[in-house]
Structure formats: C-alpha cells, structure tokens
Specification:
The structure is a single chain. By secondary structure, the chain is of the alpha/beta class. The protein has an eight-stranded parallel β-sheet. Strand 3, helix 5 and strand 4 form a beta-alpha-beta unit. The longest helix has 28 residues. The protein is globular and about 65 Å long. The relative contact order is 0.16. It binds beta-L-rhamnopyranose (RM4) and manganese (II) ion (MN) (2 copies). One manganese (II) ion binds next to loops. Beta-L-rhamnopyranose binds next to loops.
C-alpha cells in the first residue's frame, strides 16, 4: 500500500513557532485580566484540554440536500479514508480522539483491522449508529412505512436484527454505546395510531436493550419531524425520557440540537435530563430553520454557551449519573468537511471554557435575590470573554496546532488527497447524507 499523505508533527511545530509570539502575548494579557476576576488561566487551560468530542464518520464526507449533492475534491471513499481524515482532525486539535460510526455506511470488512488502523492514528470508537431510515441493498423488507415500529412483525424483526448487528460490530471495535435514531412516523393525519406505534417501538427497543453488554449504554435520539412531516414516533425529549425510563437504567436520551422546533429552550431540556439522570449526550450542530446540520455555534453561539453552562453546572456539582457523550452530527455542503468539523470542535471547547468562567456563587446570589439583570450580566461577562488564546495554548500544549485551520490549509492536505483519491465514477450526483 502506498503511503498516504499525513501532516507531520514537524510541520505543525514549525507553524506553531510562527504563531507563538502573538499567542503568548494575548495569553499573558488574558492571564492578568482573569486574575482580577480571581480566575486562574492555567486551570482553565487544563479544562480546555480535558473536553473531548467524537467526530461522526459521516461528517468527513460532503453532505447534500434533498435537491443535490456536490461532491468535494479528495473526499474519503471508504471507512479507512474517513479515519485518515478523522486522524488529521485529531492531530491538529487533540480534542477529538474518538469516531462515531454509522452502520452500514461504515461496516468494516474486518473489525480488528479497523480497530488497529484507528489505534495507529490515536483514535478509538465512540457510540455506534444504526440506520433503518434507508433500505440497504439486498434487504428483504422495506422501511418505507417504518422500521422498529412497522405494522408487520417481520419488518420490525429485521430492524431489530440490524441494531443488534451494530452492537456486535461495536463490541469488536471497542465501542460502549449504541445510538438509535429512527425515521419512523406519519406524513398524514390518521396514517398512524400514535399509541400503537409507540408500543411497538418499546417492544422492539426492549429486544435491542436486551442485547446490550453490561457496560454499554443505549442512546435514544428524538427528532420532531423529517423524514415524516406530520408525526414522528420519537418526537421529543418527553417521549424519549419515557422510553428511556421504560427500558431501564442503561437507556438514556440523546439531544441533537437540530432536532427541535425553532426557539425551543434546549438548554432547559438539557437541565431537565441532567436532573432526571437520563442525559445520554449530544449530537452537536446548529440550525436556523430545521435539522440544518450546520456547524456548531455558527448560528446561535449564545445558545451553545447556555447549554454548556448547564453542563458545567452539573459537572461542578457532581450530579449523579452525569456522563454525557459529546458528538458532532453535521453535514457539510459548501465547506471543506475537515475545516467545518475542526471549527465546530473548537466552538465546543470555547463554550465549555466560557461556561467555566461563570461566577456560580454570584449567579446563585442574583437568582436568590431576584436580580435578573445581574444574573444575565454574569452570564454575559463569561460569554463575551475572548478565550481564544486559552484554546490555542491548550491545543499547542497537547501537541496540536495553535492555528488549526491555518495549519491545515498551509499543509495542502485537501489537494494531496484529491490526487490520492480520484472520485469514483458515478459516485457523484444524487443522495443526501
Ligand atoms: C439524522 C440524525 C441521526 C443521523 C442521521 C444521519 O437526522 O441526526 O443522528 O445519524 O441524520
Ligand atoms: Mn443526530
Ligand atoms: Mn439530524
């Protein structure tokens, strides 16, 4: 096998050398500023280094809309090339050591080979994701009218078997969680009996839950519409919470930010799930209108901060059953997916660090003294603090790049991959993520 291009450590070190002067100056300035607020910048830098987020295997390819797909140059053609790209992201950021796989899109030919290939790049595997929202070549029954909730038992059994297969693959590659998102629902009033389909969902999920190894968690991902446009079986966090409770202690509720109606108070949903001990984790992305799968923090950075404010609050108060899995779930149509994923992962760390800047004693006092303006000012002070130098130093001290996107561009990685990975004939035009 010919050696594929990789960005090497000396290249990153050289780029860092060029950027270090300004970063060090800004960092020292911020150190003084934060000291006045009684905050230790080295503690915050350590926190910045501690946050880890999984990259979705499907995110490194170009996405699409229901209108068209415009493939990007040098995009990965199989799971190994996807892992190469995930490895590159990890190398530059150091905060993304795990990859979330989607089956059957990423079904490995040989699980131990895949695991080794990942490990050689410092990568391991986060939650598995099943797919019963598409028909797969050669499959016996169609999911046109549902999968885990389909009226026919055989269709449900096929969907259950697929999920169990995902768990089996996950076991072989060292994953510890399985995420189930289904597209089941109705397009027209009367099409489905709401209570009956939910009963069937639970029946199917009980079988999947029973196949879960003891140290695994099952994540239920809700979504309020799409592909069904009238009703969705697992439509919101309330339904998700009910199902997680019914299934048992290893079932949790996953929050995909794009799976809510506009203006829904997602940070409050997060707080509720934390309080009830059922928060699985996240699919981070951003949206303006629906499940847009835009880059995290690109549309509503304040919302992202407010979500992290709840997460950090739970972390600091050592809330029981609080162990959220952070994953990105985005689709990139007009940007280089590697750049978008890096930008998003950086935004998560930024929100996390900013949330650690919230003066929680003062916030509590403002809340208890019924002083909303003060409470908001405390949050705003944290949110408006420019923590970029902390993020840069955290990356550099972990062996990554001060300017991750600049370094990536300077390496001409995408150009090199375009040469290495000529587009497959006919792989272009149609299909969405
Ligand atoms: C869905 C959902 C799932 C993701 C698929 C690709 O809308 O967000 O998490 O696996 O898209
Ligand atoms: Mn998702
Ligand atoms: Mn989605």
């Amino acid at each position: 096998m010919t050696k594929h291009f990789e960005i090497d450590d000396s290249f990153i070190a050289e780029q860092n050398r060029q950027a270090r002067a300004w970063v060090a100056e800004d960092f020292e300035h911020l150190r003084k500023q934060l000291r006045r607020r009684d905050v230790d910048i080295d503690d915050l830098t350590a926190r910045a280094r501690s946050l880890q987020v999984a990259v979705p295997s499907w995110g490194v390819g170009t996405g699409g809309t229901r209108f068209a797909r415009f493939p990007g140059e040098g995009e990965p053609r199989d799971i190994y090339e996807k892992l190469e790209d995930c490895g590159t992201i990890f190398k530059l950021l150091r905060s993304t050591p795990t990859v979330s796989l989607h089956i059957p899109w990423d079904k490995p030919d040989d699980a131990s080979k895949l695991r080794e290939f990942a490990a050689a790049r410092g990568l391991s595997f986060d939650a598995m994701n099943s797919n019963t929202f598409q028909n797969q070549p050669g499959q016996k029954h169609s999911y046109k009218f549902g999968s885990l909730t389909h009226p026919e038992k055989d269709v449900r059994a096929q969907a259950v078997a697929h999920n169990i297969e995902c768990i089996e693959i996950g076991k072989a590659i060292g994953s510890k969680a399985h995420t189930v998102w289904i597209g089941d629902g109705g397009n027209f009033p009367g099409q489905q009996h709401f209570r009956r389909v939910l009963e069937r969902y639970l029946e199917s999920m009980r079988e999947i839950y029973a196949a879960l190894p003891d140290d695994w968690r099952l994540f239920i991902e809700h979504k309020f519409y799409e592909p069904a446009f009238y009703s969705t079986v697992i439509n919101d966090w309330g339904t998700s919470y009910y199902c997680a409770r019914e299934l048992g202690p290893r079932a949790f509720c996953l929050v995909d930010l794009g799976h809510h109606a506009p203006n829904v108070n997602i940070e409050m949903i997060v707080a509720r799930l934390i309080q009830f001990g059922k928060l699985a984790g996240f699919h981070f992305n951003d949206s303006k209108y629906g499940d847009d799968d835009l880059d995290s923090g690109s549309i509503k950075p304040f919302q992202l901060f407010l979500i992290f404010n709840e997460l950090v609050d739970a972390e600091l108060s050592r809330t029981p059953n609080f162990n959220p899995a952070y994953m990105l779930d985005q689709s990139h149509n007009v940007t280089d997916p590697i750049e978008s994923l890096m930008m998003s992962a950086i935004e998560l760390v930024r929100a996390y660090v900013q949330a650690h800047l919230v003066d929680r004693d003062e916030l509590r006092e403002a809340q208890e003294k019924c002083d909303p303006l003060r409470a908001l000012a405390i949050l705003k002070q944290a949110f408006t603090t420019d923590v970029a130098p902390i993020l840069a130093i955290a990356r550099e001290s972990a062996g990554g790049a001060i300017d991750a996107i600049g370094t990536y561009r300077a390496s001409r990685y995408r150009r090199r991959k375009a040469d290495e990975r000529p587009t497959k004939q006919g792989a272009a035009a149609s299909g969405i993520v």
